[in-house]
Amino acid sequence: MSGTVLAQAFALVFDPYVLWVILASAAYGLFVGAVPGLTATMATALLVPVTFFMPPVPAIASIVTATAMAIFAGDIPSCLLRMPGTPASAAYTDEAYAMTKKGQGEMALGAGLVFSVMGGLFGTAVLIAAAPALAEVALKFSSFEYFWLVLLGLLSAVFLAIGNPLKGVVSLLLGLLVSAVGLDNPAGFPRFTFGNAELAGGFTLIPIMIGMFAVSEILRNVASLDRPWQMAQATIGNVFQGMWGLTKRYPAQILRGSVLGTAIGALPGAGADIAAWMSYAMSKRFSKEPEKFGTGHVEGIVEAGASNNSALAGAWIPALVFGIPGDSITAIVIGVLYIKGLNPGPTVFMEKAPEMYAIFLIFILANLLMLPLGVAAIKGAKQLLRAPREVLMPVILLFCVVGSFAINNSIFGVILMLAFGIVAYAMEENGFPVAPAILGMVLGAMLEEHFISSMIKSDGRILAFFERPIAGGLGALTLAVVAIPLLRRFFRSAA
Amino acid sequence: MPGQKFGPAWFPGAIAVGLAVCGAALVLTGARQRGPWCALPDWVRRPRPRAGVAAVLAGLVFYILLADRLGFHVTGVLLLAFWMRVLGASWRVTIPVALIATLAMHFAFYKGLRVPLPWGLLEQWAF
Question: Burial level of A287, CB count in 10 A (0-12/13-18/19+)?
Fold first, then answer.
Protein backbone atom coordinates (compact mmCIF):
# COMPACT_ATOMS: atom_id res chain seq x y z
CA MET A 1 0.00 0.00 0.00
CA SER A 2 1.36 3.39 -0.86
CA GLY A 3 1.67 6.23 1.59
CA THR A 4 -0.77 8.49 -0.21
CA VAL A 5 -3.49 5.85 -0.10
CA LEU A 6 -3.03 5.47 3.63
CA ALA A 7 -3.06 9.23 4.08
CA GLN A 8 -6.29 9.44 2.11
CA ALA A 9 -7.77 6.67 4.22
CA PHE A 10 -6.85 8.51 7.42
CA ALA A 11 -8.43 11.67 6.05
CA LEU A 12 -11.61 9.74 5.28
CA VAL A 13 -11.86 8.27 8.79
CA PHE A 14 -10.65 11.14 10.96
CA ASP A 15 -13.34 13.48 9.77
CA PRO A 16 -15.56 14.99 12.49
CA TYR A 17 -18.74 13.69 10.87
CA VAL A 18 -17.37 10.13 10.53
CA LEU A 19 -16.09 10.13 14.11
CA TRP A 20 -19.46 11.34 15.32
CA VAL A 21 -21.18 8.54 13.38
CA ILE A 22 -18.78 5.99 14.90
CA LEU A 23 -19.51 7.20 18.42
CA ALA A 24 -23.28 7.21 17.91
CA SER A 25 -23.20 3.76 16.31
CA ALA A 26 -21.09 2.47 19.18
CA ALA A 27 -23.69 3.58 21.71
CA TYR A 28 -26.44 2.11 19.53
CA GLY A 29 -24.56 -1.18 19.14
CA LEU A 30 -23.91 -1.49 22.87
CA PHE A 31 -27.58 -0.91 23.60
CA VAL A 32 -28.90 -3.35 20.99
CA GLY A 33 -26.36 -5.97 21.99
CA ALA A 34 -27.07 -5.65 25.69
CA VAL A 35 -30.84 -6.01 25.39
CA PRO A 36 -31.65 -9.71 25.13
CA GLY A 37 -33.60 -10.52 21.99
CA LEU A 38 -32.09 -7.73 19.93
CA THR A 39 -29.27 -9.17 17.81
CA ALA A 40 -26.25 -7.71 16.02
CA THR A 41 -27.78 -8.72 12.69
CA MET A 42 -30.95 -6.89 13.61
CA ALA A 43 -28.85 -3.84 14.53
CA THR A 44 -27.37 -3.96 11.02
CA ALA A 45 -30.72 -4.42 9.28
CA LEU A 46 -32.17 -1.44 11.14
CA LEU A 47 -29.12 0.70 10.35
CA VAL A 48 -29.41 0.21 6.60
CA PRO A 49 -32.32 2.64 6.00
CA VAL A 50 -30.30 5.29 7.84
CA THR A 51 -26.98 4.55 6.11
CA PHE A 52 -28.84 4.73 2.79
CA PHE A 53 -28.46 8.48 2.92
CA MET A 54 -24.86 8.70 4.11
CA PRO A 55 -21.61 8.83 2.11
CA PRO A 56 -19.90 5.41 1.77
CA VAL A 57 -17.31 5.60 4.56
CA PRO A 58 -19.58 6.71 7.42
CA ALA A 59 -22.21 4.24 6.22
CA ILE A 60 -19.79 1.32 6.50
CA ALA A 61 -18.28 2.76 9.69
CA SER A 62 -21.64 2.74 11.43
CA ILE A 63 -22.21 -0.94 10.63
CA VAL A 64 -18.69 -2.06 11.56
CA THR A 65 -18.79 -0.22 14.88
CA ALA A 66 -22.32 -1.17 15.84
CA THR A 67 -21.80 -4.88 15.17
CA ALA A 68 -18.47 -5.07 17.03
CA MET A 69 -20.02 -3.38 20.08
CA ALA A 70 -23.17 -5.48 19.92
CA ILE A 71 -21.30 -8.79 19.89
CA PHE A 72 -19.35 -7.78 22.99
CA ALA A 73 -22.38 -6.27 24.74
CA GLY A 74 -24.23 -9.55 24.30
CA ASP A 75 -22.01 -10.89 27.09
CA ILE A 76 -23.42 -8.42 29.64
CA PRO A 77 -26.92 -9.93 30.08
CA SER A 78 -25.33 -13.39 29.83
CA CYS A 79 -23.53 -12.64 33.09
CA LEU A 80 -26.34 -10.76 34.80
CA LEU A 81 -29.58 -12.32 33.56
CA ARG A 82 -28.52 -15.70 32.20
CA MET A 83 -29.84 -14.55 28.85
CA PRO A 84 -27.56 -14.00 25.87
CA GLY A 85 -27.82 -10.46 24.53
CA THR A 86 -27.06 -11.77 21.05
CA PRO A 87 -26.91 -15.40 19.84
CA ALA A 88 -23.11 -15.06 19.68
CA SER A 89 -22.96 -15.15 23.49
CA ALA A 90 -25.31 -18.11 23.87
CA ALA A 91 -22.47 -20.65 23.86
CA TYR A 92 -21.12 -19.49 27.22
CA THR A 93 -24.14 -17.86 28.84
CA ASP A 94 -24.53 -20.58 31.48
CA GLU A 95 -20.82 -20.44 32.26
CA ALA A 96 -20.82 -16.66 32.63
CA TYR A 97 -23.90 -16.73 34.81
CA ALA A 98 -22.39 -19.43 37.00
CA MET A 99 -19.35 -17.18 37.50
CA THR A 100 -21.59 -14.31 38.57
CA LYS A 101 -23.34 -16.61 41.04
CA LYS A 102 -19.93 -17.46 42.51
CA GLY A 103 -19.23 -13.74 42.92
CA GLN A 104 -16.89 -13.55 39.92
CA GLY A 105 -19.15 -11.35 37.78
CA GLU A 106 -16.39 -8.76 37.31
CA MET A 107 -14.04 -11.36 35.93
CA ALA A 108 -16.64 -12.79 33.54
CA LEU A 109 -17.54 -9.35 32.20
CA GLY A 110 -13.91 -8.27 32.05
CA ALA A 111 -12.92 -11.39 30.16
CA GLY A 112 -15.80 -10.83 27.74
CA LEU A 113 -14.58 -7.29 27.12
CA VAL A 114 -10.81 -7.67 27.01
CA PHE A 115 -10.74 -10.84 24.93
CA SER A 116 -13.43 -9.51 22.60
CA VAL A 117 -11.06 -6.64 21.84
CA MET A 118 -8.12 -9.02 21.32
CA GLY A 119 -10.13 -11.32 19.06
CA GLY A 120 -11.51 -8.36 17.13
CA LEU A 121 -8.02 -6.95 16.56
CA PHE A 122 -6.72 -10.36 15.50
CA GLY A 123 -9.54 -10.80 12.98
CA THR A 124 -8.89 -7.28 11.70
CA ALA A 125 -5.18 -8.05 11.21
CA VAL A 126 -6.06 -11.14 9.19
CA LEU A 127 -8.59 -9.13 7.16
CA ILE A 128 -5.98 -6.47 6.38
CA ALA A 129 -3.38 -9.05 5.39
CA ALA A 130 -5.56 -11.56 3.58
CA ALA A 131 -8.13 -9.51 1.66
CA PRO A 132 -5.78 -7.62 -0.70
CA ALA A 133 -3.62 -10.73 -1.20
CA LEU A 134 -6.66 -12.84 -2.01
CA ALA A 135 -7.85 -10.13 -4.38
CA GLU A 136 -4.63 -10.52 -6.41
CA VAL A 137 -5.41 -14.20 -6.92
CA ALA A 138 -9.08 -13.55 -7.57
CA LEU A 139 -8.26 -11.20 -10.44
CA LYS A 140 -7.54 -14.27 -12.57
CA PHE A 141 -10.87 -15.93 -11.76
CA SER A 142 -13.36 -16.58 -14.55
CA SER A 143 -17.02 -17.56 -14.34
CA PHE A 144 -16.01 -21.19 -13.70
CA GLU A 145 -14.12 -20.36 -10.51
CA TYR A 146 -16.82 -17.98 -9.34
CA PHE A 147 -19.50 -20.58 -9.90
CA TRP A 148 -17.68 -23.05 -7.65
CA LEU A 149 -16.90 -20.41 -5.03
CA VAL A 150 -20.54 -19.39 -4.80
CA LEU A 151 -21.69 -23.00 -4.65
CA LEU A 152 -19.08 -23.81 -2.01
CA GLY A 153 -20.25 -20.82 0.02
CA LEU A 154 -23.88 -21.86 -0.18
CA LEU A 155 -23.07 -25.44 0.81
CA SER A 156 -20.89 -24.44 3.73
CA ALA A 157 -23.78 -22.32 4.99
CA VAL A 158 -25.93 -25.45 5.00
CA PHE A 159 -23.41 -27.74 6.66
CA LEU A 160 -22.20 -25.27 9.28
CA ALA A 161 -25.73 -24.46 10.42
CA ILE A 162 -26.74 -26.10 13.68
CA GLY A 163 -29.38 -28.79 13.31
CA ASN A 164 -30.71 -30.91 10.47
CA PRO A 165 -28.74 -30.30 7.22
CA LEU A 166 -31.78 -31.31 5.17
CA LYS A 167 -33.70 -28.37 6.62
CA GLY A 168 -30.69 -26.19 5.82
CA VAL A 169 -30.91 -27.25 2.17
CA VAL A 170 -34.62 -26.45 2.08
CA SER A 171 -33.91 -23.02 3.57
CA LEU A 172 -31.18 -22.43 0.98
CA LEU A 173 -33.43 -23.45 -1.92
CA LEU A 174 -36.21 -21.16 -0.71
CA GLY A 175 -33.71 -18.30 -0.64
CA LEU A 176 -32.57 -19.12 -4.18
CA LEU A 177 -36.21 -19.18 -5.27
CA VAL A 178 -36.71 -15.67 -3.91
CA SER A 179 -33.65 -14.51 -5.85
CA ALA A 180 -35.13 -15.93 -9.08
CA VAL A 181 -38.08 -13.51 -9.04
CA GLY A 182 -38.03 -10.66 -11.52
CA LEU A 183 -36.34 -9.59 -14.74
CA ASP A 184 -32.82 -9.66 -13.40
CA ASN A 185 -31.66 -12.96 -14.89
CA PRO A 186 -29.25 -13.73 -17.75
CA ALA A 187 -32.09 -13.98 -20.27
CA GLY A 188 -33.82 -10.82 -19.05
CA PHE A 189 -37.05 -12.77 -18.94
CA PRO A 190 -39.73 -11.88 -16.35
CA ARG A 191 -40.05 -14.78 -13.89
CA PHE A 192 -42.72 -15.18 -11.19
CA THR A 193 -43.87 -11.59 -11.65
CA PHE A 194 -47.56 -12.33 -12.34
CA GLY A 195 -47.65 -9.13 -14.36
CA ASN A 196 -46.95 -7.09 -11.23
CA ALA A 197 -44.64 -4.10 -11.79
CA GLU A 198 -43.28 -4.23 -8.19
CA LEU A 199 -42.17 -7.81 -8.76
CA ALA A 200 -40.54 -7.17 -12.13
CA GLY A 201 -37.56 -5.57 -10.42
CA GLY A 202 -37.23 -8.57 -8.15
CA PHE A 203 -37.59 -8.55 -4.39
CA THR A 204 -35.79 -5.72 -2.62
CA LEU A 205 -33.63 -7.44 -0.05
CA ILE A 206 -33.49 -4.80 2.69
CA PRO A 207 -37.20 -4.97 3.71
CA ILE A 208 -36.90 -8.76 3.56
CA MET A 209 -33.92 -8.70 5.90
CA ILE A 210 -35.65 -6.27 8.27
CA GLY A 211 -38.54 -8.73 8.31
CA MET A 212 -36.42 -11.83 8.80
CA PHE A 213 -34.06 -10.42 11.42
CA ALA A 214 -36.10 -7.76 13.23
CA VAL A 215 -39.82 -8.53 12.90
CA SER A 216 -39.33 -12.24 13.59
CA GLU A 217 -37.24 -11.33 16.65
CA ILE A 218 -39.96 -8.96 17.88
CA LEU A 219 -42.53 -11.74 17.50
CA ARG A 220 -40.31 -14.04 19.56
CA ASN A 221 -39.92 -11.34 22.21
CA VAL A 222 -43.62 -10.61 22.38
CA ALA A 223 -44.33 -14.31 22.70
CA SER A 224 -42.19 -14.45 25.86
CA LEU A 225 -43.22 -11.13 27.38
CA ASP A 226 -44.80 -12.71 30.44
CA ARG A 227 -41.42 -14.06 31.56
CA PRO A 228 -39.75 -11.25 33.54
CA TRP A 229 -35.98 -10.67 33.68
CA GLN A 230 -34.12 -11.10 36.95
CA MET A 231 -30.74 -9.54 37.68
CA ALA A 232 -28.18 -11.62 39.52
CA GLN A 233 -25.82 -8.88 40.65
CA ALA A 234 -26.45 -5.19 41.10
CA THR A 235 -23.04 -3.54 41.56
CA ILE A 236 -20.01 -4.23 39.42
CA GLY A 237 -16.46 -3.46 40.48
CA ASN A 238 -13.25 -3.09 38.47
CA VAL A 239 -13.55 -5.35 35.44
CA PHE A 240 -9.89 -5.08 34.42
CA GLN A 241 -8.65 -6.72 37.61
CA GLY A 242 -6.90 -9.99 36.84
CA MET A 243 -7.10 -9.63 33.06
CA TRP A 244 -3.34 -9.53 32.63
CA GLY A 245 -3.11 -12.72 34.65
CA LEU A 246 -5.68 -14.40 32.41
CA THR A 247 -3.80 -13.26 29.30
CA LYS A 248 -0.60 -14.85 30.60
CA ARG A 249 -2.41 -17.97 31.71
CA TYR A 250 -4.39 -18.66 28.52
CA PRO A 251 -2.32 -17.36 25.56
CA ALA A 252 -2.90 -20.52 23.51
CA GLN A 253 -6.65 -20.34 24.13
CA ILE A 254 -6.81 -16.69 23.02
CA LEU A 255 -4.87 -17.45 19.85
CA ARG A 256 -6.85 -20.61 19.08
CA GLY A 257 -10.17 -18.82 19.61
CA SER A 258 -9.12 -15.93 17.39
CA VAL A 259 -7.85 -18.20 14.60
CA LEU A 260 -10.89 -20.47 14.61
CA GLY A 261 -13.23 -17.48 14.88
CA THR A 262 -11.64 -15.71 11.92
CA ALA A 263 -11.79 -18.90 9.85
CA ILE A 264 -15.44 -19.62 10.70
CA GLY A 265 -16.27 -16.00 10.00
CA ALA A 266 -14.58 -16.18 6.61
CA LEU A 267 -16.49 -19.33 5.67
CA PRO A 268 -19.75 -18.22 4.11
CA GLY A 269 -22.93 -18.64 6.07
CA ALA A 270 -21.44 -19.09 9.53
CA GLY A 271 -20.66 -16.16 11.74
CA ALA A 272 -20.00 -15.13 15.32
CA ASP A 273 -22.62 -17.40 16.94
CA ILE A 274 -21.36 -20.63 15.41
CA ALA A 275 -17.75 -19.53 15.98
CA ALA A 276 -18.50 -19.12 19.69
CA TRP A 277 -20.13 -22.56 19.96
CA MET A 278 -17.23 -24.25 18.20
CA SER A 279 -14.58 -22.38 20.19
CA TYR A 280 -16.27 -23.16 23.49
CA ALA A 281 -16.40 -26.85 22.57
CA MET A 282 -12.78 -26.75 21.41
CA SER A 283 -11.70 -25.05 24.61
CA LYS A 284 -13.34 -27.75 26.69
CA ARG A 285 -11.86 -30.57 24.66
CA PHE A 286 -8.27 -29.29 24.91
CA SER A 287 -8.51 -27.93 28.43
CA LYS A 288 -6.36 -29.35 31.23
CA GLU A 289 -9.34 -29.08 33.55
CA PRO A 290 -12.42 -29.89 31.42
CA GLU A 291 -14.35 -30.98 34.51
CA LYS A 292 -14.55 -27.32 35.61
CA PHE A 293 -16.46 -26.27 32.46
CA GLY A 294 -20.04 -25.37 33.23
CA THR A 295 -19.35 -24.60 36.88
CA GLY A 296 -18.24 -21.00 36.34
CA HIS A 297 -14.79 -21.46 34.79
CA VAL A 298 -13.35 -18.55 32.81
CA GLU A 299 -11.26 -20.48 30.28
CA GLY A 300 -14.10 -21.12 27.79
CA ILE A 301 -15.27 -17.51 28.01
CA VAL A 302 -11.77 -16.31 27.15
CA GLU A 303 -11.57 -18.51 24.06
CA ALA A 304 -15.14 -18.14 22.80
CA GLY A 305 -15.23 -14.42 23.62
CA ALA A 306 -12.19 -13.85 21.42
CA SER A 307 -13.67 -16.13 18.79
CA ASN A 308 -17.00 -14.40 18.23
CA ASN A 309 -15.46 -10.97 17.79
CA SER A 310 -12.74 -12.21 15.44
CA ALA A 311 -15.45 -13.86 13.32
CA LEU A 312 -16.95 -10.44 12.60
CA ALA A 313 -13.83 -9.23 10.81
CA GLY A 314 -13.22 -12.60 9.17
CA ALA A 315 -16.63 -12.45 7.53
CA TRP A 316 -15.61 -9.35 5.61
CA ILE A 317 -12.79 -11.16 3.77
CA PRO A 318 -14.97 -13.10 1.27
CA ALA A 319 -17.53 -10.28 1.31
CA LEU A 320 -15.08 -7.68 0.04
CA VAL A 321 -13.00 -9.90 -2.24
CA PHE A 322 -15.67 -12.06 -3.89
CA GLY A 323 -18.96 -10.48 -2.93
CA ILE A 324 -19.76 -13.67 -1.01
CA PRO A 325 -20.92 -12.85 2.52
CA GLY A 326 -19.17 -14.61 5.39
CA ASP A 327 -22.15 -14.26 7.78
CA SER A 328 -25.66 -12.76 7.93
CA ILE A 329 -24.28 -9.34 8.83
CA THR A 330 -22.08 -9.13 5.76
CA ALA A 331 -25.00 -10.48 3.69
CA ILE A 332 -26.69 -7.18 4.51
CA VAL A 333 -23.45 -5.22 4.14
CA ILE A 334 -22.94 -6.40 0.56
CA GLY A 335 -26.20 -4.70 -0.42
CA VAL A 336 -24.97 -1.49 1.19
CA LEU A 337 -21.61 -1.76 -0.61
CA TYR A 338 -23.38 -1.96 -3.99
CA ILE A 339 -25.60 1.01 -3.17
CA LYS A 340 -22.53 3.02 -2.19
CA GLY A 341 -20.64 2.20 -5.40
CA LEU A 342 -18.07 0.09 -3.55
CA ASN A 343 -19.03 -3.00 -5.56
CA PRO A 344 -17.26 -5.92 -3.91
CA GLY A 345 -14.78 -7.84 -6.03
CA PRO A 346 -11.03 -8.10 -6.51
CA THR A 347 -10.78 -4.81 -8.38
CA VAL A 348 -12.27 -2.79 -5.53
CA PHE A 349 -8.88 -2.85 -3.80
CA MET A 350 -7.35 -0.97 -6.73
CA GLU A 351 -10.18 1.30 -7.74
CA LYS A 352 -11.36 2.21 -4.25
CA ALA A 353 -8.16 1.64 -2.27
CA PRO A 354 -8.58 4.63 0.09
CA GLU A 355 -12.10 3.54 1.02
CA MET A 356 -10.95 -0.05 1.62
CA TYR A 357 -8.13 1.06 3.90
CA ALA A 358 -10.57 3.38 5.62
CA ILE A 359 -12.72 0.31 6.40
CA PHE A 360 -9.67 -1.43 7.87
CA LEU A 361 -8.87 1.62 10.01
CA ILE A 362 -12.46 1.74 11.25
CA PHE A 363 -12.19 -1.88 12.33
CA ILE A 364 -9.10 -1.07 14.42
CA LEU A 365 -10.67 2.08 15.82
CA ALA A 366 -13.95 0.34 16.71
CA ASN A 367 -12.13 -2.42 18.58
CA LEU A 368 -9.98 0.02 20.54
CA LEU A 369 -13.01 2.16 21.32
CA MET A 370 -14.64 -0.93 22.77
CA LEU A 371 -12.44 -0.78 25.89
CA PRO A 372 -13.63 2.56 27.34
CA LEU A 373 -17.17 2.31 25.99
CA GLY A 374 -17.46 -1.30 27.09
CA VAL A 375 -16.57 -0.34 30.66
CA ALA A 376 -19.19 2.39 30.53
CA ALA A 377 -21.79 -0.09 29.25
CA ILE A 378 -20.95 -2.56 31.99
CA LYS A 379 -21.27 0.16 34.61
CA GLY A 380 -24.58 1.27 33.17
CA ALA A 381 -25.82 -2.29 32.71
CA LYS A 382 -28.44 -1.90 35.40
CA GLN A 383 -30.11 0.97 33.57
CA LEU A 384 -29.62 -0.65 30.15
CA LEU A 385 -31.34 -3.82 31.23
CA ARG A 386 -34.22 -1.95 32.77
CA ALA A 387 -35.36 -0.77 29.32
CA PRO A 388 -39.03 -1.79 29.32
CA ARG A 389 -39.73 -4.26 26.53
CA GLU A 390 -43.40 -3.28 26.27
CA VAL A 391 -42.23 0.18 25.14
CA LEU A 392 -39.11 -0.86 23.24
CA MET A 393 -40.74 -3.43 20.98
CA PRO A 394 -43.50 -1.15 19.61
CA VAL A 395 -41.02 1.65 18.88
CA ILE A 396 -38.63 -0.74 17.10
CA LEU A 397 -41.53 -2.15 15.14
CA LEU A 398 -42.64 1.25 13.88
CA PHE A 399 -39.02 1.97 13.01
CA CYS A 400 -38.94 -1.26 10.97
CA VAL A 401 -42.06 -0.13 9.12
CA VAL A 402 -40.61 3.27 8.27
CA GLY A 403 -37.25 1.73 7.33
CA SER A 404 -38.83 -0.82 5.00
CA PHE A 405 -40.91 1.91 3.41
CA ALA A 406 -37.92 4.24 2.99
CA ILE A 407 -35.89 1.92 0.74
CA ASN A 408 -38.19 2.31 -2.29
CA ASN A 409 -40.73 4.77 -0.82
CA SER A 410 -43.30 2.06 -1.35
CA ILE A 411 -45.77 0.31 0.93
CA PHE A 412 -44.79 -2.89 -0.90
CA GLY A 413 -41.63 -2.86 1.26
CA VAL A 414 -43.79 -3.04 4.40
CA ILE A 415 -45.75 -5.95 2.92
CA LEU A 416 -42.50 -7.79 2.17
CA MET A 417 -41.24 -7.08 5.69
CA LEU A 418 -44.37 -8.51 7.31
CA ALA A 419 -44.53 -11.57 5.04
CA PHE A 420 -40.87 -12.50 5.48
CA GLY A 421 -41.00 -11.73 9.19
CA ILE A 422 -43.72 -14.34 9.64
CA VAL A 423 -41.91 -16.81 7.37
CA ALA A 424 -38.63 -16.43 9.28
CA TYR A 425 -40.40 -16.82 12.62
CA ALA A 426 -42.13 -20.01 11.45
CA MET A 427 -38.91 -21.36 9.98
CA GLU A 428 -36.88 -20.89 13.16
CA GLU A 429 -39.62 -22.28 15.36
CA ASN A 430 -39.51 -25.45 13.28
CA GLY A 431 -35.75 -25.86 13.14
CA PHE A 432 -35.10 -24.39 9.69
CA PRO A 433 -32.01 -22.13 9.92
CA VAL A 434 -32.50 -18.68 8.39
CA ALA A 435 -28.89 -17.94 7.40
CA PRO A 436 -28.84 -20.27 4.35
CA ALA A 437 -32.01 -18.61 3.01
CA ILE A 438 -30.42 -15.17 3.31
CA LEU A 439 -27.28 -16.40 1.59
CA GLY A 440 -29.38 -17.92 -1.19
CA MET A 441 -31.18 -14.63 -1.76
CA VAL A 442 -27.95 -12.66 -1.88
CA LEU A 443 -26.02 -15.12 -4.03
CA GLY A 444 -28.77 -16.61 -6.24
CA ALA A 445 -28.31 -14.16 -9.11
CA MET A 446 -24.53 -14.63 -9.02
CA LEU A 447 -24.83 -18.43 -9.00
CA GLU A 448 -27.15 -18.48 -11.99
CA GLU A 449 -25.23 -15.89 -13.97
CA HIS A 450 -21.88 -17.65 -13.57
CA PHE A 451 -23.42 -21.03 -14.32
CA ILE A 452 -25.19 -19.87 -17.49
CA SER A 453 -22.24 -17.91 -18.84
CA SER A 454 -19.92 -20.86 -18.13
CA MET A 455 -22.28 -23.19 -19.93
CA ILE A 456 -22.50 -20.84 -22.92
CA LYS A 457 -18.69 -20.51 -23.03
CA SER A 458 -18.16 -24.25 -22.92
CA ASP A 459 -21.10 -25.00 -25.21
CA GLY A 460 -22.83 -27.07 -22.57
CA ARG A 461 -19.96 -29.33 -21.54
CA ILE A 462 -20.11 -29.99 -17.78
CA LEU A 463 -16.48 -31.16 -17.75
CA ALA A 464 -15.32 -27.64 -18.63
CA PHE A 465 -16.03 -26.77 -14.98
CA PHE A 466 -13.04 -28.91 -14.01
CA GLU A 467 -10.58 -27.99 -16.78
CA ARG A 468 -8.99 -24.86 -15.31
CA PRO A 469 -6.68 -25.75 -12.40
CA ILE A 470 -8.24 -23.55 -9.69
CA ALA A 471 -11.76 -24.29 -10.89
CA GLY A 472 -10.99 -28.00 -10.85
CA GLY A 473 -9.63 -27.79 -7.31
CA LEU A 474 -12.62 -25.79 -6.08
CA GLY A 475 -14.96 -28.21 -7.85
CA ALA A 476 -13.33 -31.21 -6.23
CA LEU A 477 -13.52 -29.49 -2.83
CA THR A 478 -17.22 -28.74 -3.37
CA LEU A 479 -17.97 -32.34 -4.27
CA ALA A 480 -15.99 -33.50 -1.22
CA VAL A 481 -17.96 -31.20 1.07
CA VAL A 482 -21.16 -32.85 -0.15
CA ALA A 483 -19.86 -36.41 -0.37
CA ILE A 484 -17.96 -36.80 2.90
CA PRO A 485 -20.86 -36.27 5.35
CA LEU A 486 -23.08 -38.49 3.19
CA LEU A 487 -20.48 -41.27 3.06
CA ARG A 488 -19.84 -40.99 6.78
CA ARG A 489 -23.53 -41.32 7.52
CA PHE A 490 -23.76 -44.30 5.14
CA PHE A 491 -20.88 -46.15 6.80
CA ARG A 492 -22.14 -45.35 10.27
CA SER A 493 -25.57 -46.80 9.52
CA ALA A 494 -23.94 -49.82 7.84
CA ALA A 495 -21.75 -50.56 10.85
CA MET B 1 -36.97 -19.88 -24.86
CA PRO B 2 -36.21 -21.19 -28.39
CA GLY B 3 -32.57 -21.38 -29.49
CA GLN B 4 -31.22 -21.31 -25.95
CA LYS B 5 -30.18 -24.47 -24.18
CA PHE B 6 -29.94 -22.75 -20.79
CA GLY B 7 -32.79 -20.31 -20.70
CA PRO B 8 -34.61 -18.59 -17.85
CA ALA B 9 -36.51 -21.73 -16.87
CA TRP B 10 -33.38 -23.70 -16.05
CA PHE B 11 -32.58 -22.17 -12.66
CA PRO B 12 -36.11 -22.25 -11.14
CA GLY B 13 -36.45 -25.76 -12.55
CA ALA B 14 -33.34 -26.92 -10.71
CA ILE B 15 -34.61 -25.31 -7.49
CA ALA B 16 -37.97 -27.03 -7.89
CA VAL B 17 -36.32 -30.44 -8.31
CA GLY B 18 -34.22 -29.82 -5.19
CA LEU B 19 -37.21 -28.72 -3.14
CA ALA B 20 -39.23 -31.73 -4.27
CA VAL B 21 -36.45 -34.14 -3.27
CA CYS B 22 -35.85 -32.49 0.11
CA GLY B 23 -39.57 -32.20 0.77
CA ALA B 24 -40.05 -35.90 0.09
CA ALA B 25 -37.13 -36.75 2.38
CA LEU B 26 -38.53 -34.57 5.19
CA VAL B 27 -41.95 -36.18 4.82
CA LEU B 28 -40.35 -39.62 5.03
CA THR B 29 -38.32 -38.84 8.17
CA GLY B 30 -41.35 -37.16 9.71
CA ALA B 31 -43.55 -40.15 8.98
CA ARG B 32 -41.00 -42.46 10.59
CA GLN B 33 -40.94 -40.40 13.81
CA ARG B 34 -44.72 -40.68 14.29
CA GLY B 35 -45.18 -37.30 15.95
CA PRO B 36 -48.40 -35.28 15.71
CA TRP B 37 -49.11 -33.78 12.28
CA CYS B 38 -49.20 -30.27 13.55
CA ALA B 39 -48.26 -28.72 16.90
CA LEU B 40 -48.89 -25.19 18.17
CA PRO B 41 -46.18 -23.32 20.11
CA ASP B 42 -46.78 -23.14 23.86
CA TRP B 43 -47.32 -19.36 23.99
CA VAL B 44 -50.65 -19.83 22.20
CA ARG B 45 -52.07 -21.06 25.48
CA ARG B 46 -50.78 -18.06 27.48
CA PRO B 47 -53.07 -15.01 27.17
CA ARG B 48 -50.55 -12.13 27.20
CA PRO B 49 -48.19 -13.46 24.51
CA ARG B 50 -51.16 -14.50 22.39
CA ALA B 51 -52.64 -11.01 22.52
CA GLY B 52 -49.23 -9.49 21.84
CA VAL B 53 -48.50 -11.53 18.72
CA ALA B 54 -52.02 -10.92 17.40
CA ALA B 55 -51.63 -7.18 18.02
CA VAL B 56 -48.29 -7.03 16.21
CA LEU B 57 -49.66 -8.79 13.13
CA ALA B 58 -52.98 -6.91 13.10
CA GLY B 59 -51.21 -3.59 13.56
CA LEU B 60 -48.89 -4.19 10.62
CA VAL B 61 -51.82 -5.16 8.36
CA PHE B 62 -53.62 -2.02 9.55
CA TYR B 63 -50.61 0.09 8.56
CA ILE B 64 -50.35 -1.53 5.12
CA LEU B 65 -54.05 -0.96 4.39
CA LEU B 66 -54.59 2.49 5.87
CA ALA B 67 -51.28 4.38 6.16
CA ASP B 68 -51.75 6.12 2.80
CA ARG B 69 -55.24 7.32 3.66
CA LEU B 70 -54.70 8.25 7.34
CA GLY B 71 -51.11 9.39 6.92
CA PHE B 72 -48.00 8.23 8.71
CA HIS B 73 -48.42 10.46 11.73
CA VAL B 74 -51.95 9.44 12.68
CA THR B 75 -51.26 5.77 11.99
CA GLY B 76 -47.93 5.87 13.84
CA VAL B 77 -49.36 7.35 17.03
CA LEU B 78 -52.38 5.02 16.95
CA LEU B 79 -50.27 1.92 16.37
CA LEU B 80 -47.66 2.73 19.01
CA ALA B 81 -50.39 3.38 21.55
CA PHE B 82 -52.23 0.20 20.61
CA TRP B 83 -49.11 -1.97 20.79
CA MET B 84 -47.87 -0.50 24.06
CA ARG B 85 -51.26 -0.88 25.75
CA VAL B 86 -51.63 -4.49 24.61
CA LEU B 87 -48.10 -5.34 25.76
CA GLY B 88 -48.85 -3.85 29.16
CA ALA B 89 -47.49 -0.27 29.34
CA SER B 90 -49.45 2.26 31.42
CA TRP B 91 -51.27 5.22 29.81
CA ARG B 92 -48.80 7.57 31.51
CA VAL B 93 -45.95 6.02 29.54
CA THR B 94 -47.92 5.22 26.40
CA ILE B 95 -49.15 8.67 25.42
CA PRO B 96 -45.88 10.63 25.62
CA VAL B 97 -43.83 7.80 24.06
CA ALA B 98 -46.29 7.37 21.17
CA LEU B 99 -46.24 11.10 20.39
CA ILE B 100 -42.50 11.62 20.85
CA ALA B 101 -41.41 8.49 18.97
CA THR B 102 -43.64 9.32 16.00
CA LEU B 103 -42.36 12.88 15.92
CA ALA B 104 -38.75 11.69 16.21
CA MET B 105 -39.24 9.39 13.23
CA HIS B 106 -40.86 12.25 11.34
CA PHE B 107 -37.84 14.43 11.91
CA ALA B 108 -35.31 11.66 11.25
CA PHE B 109 -36.87 10.23 8.12
CA TYR B 110 -39.12 12.94 6.63
CA LYS B 111 -36.97 15.94 7.43
CA GLY B 112 -33.51 14.41 7.76
CA LEU B 113 -33.54 11.67 5.15
CA ARG B 114 -36.25 13.13 2.87
CA VAL B 115 -38.41 10.01 2.87
CA PRO B 116 -41.87 11.01 1.56
CA LEU B 117 -43.92 9.63 4.45
CA PRO B 118 -47.61 10.07 3.56
CA TRP B 119 -49.51 12.87 5.32
CA GLY B 120 -53.01 11.53 4.61
CA LEU B 121 -55.60 13.28 6.77
CA LEU B 122 -53.11 15.90 7.90
CA GLU B 123 -52.17 16.94 4.34
CA GLN B 124 -53.22 20.59 4.85
CA TRP B 125 -51.12 20.94 7.99
CA ALA B 126 -48.00 19.34 6.46
CA PHE B 127 -44.73 20.80 7.78
Answer: middle
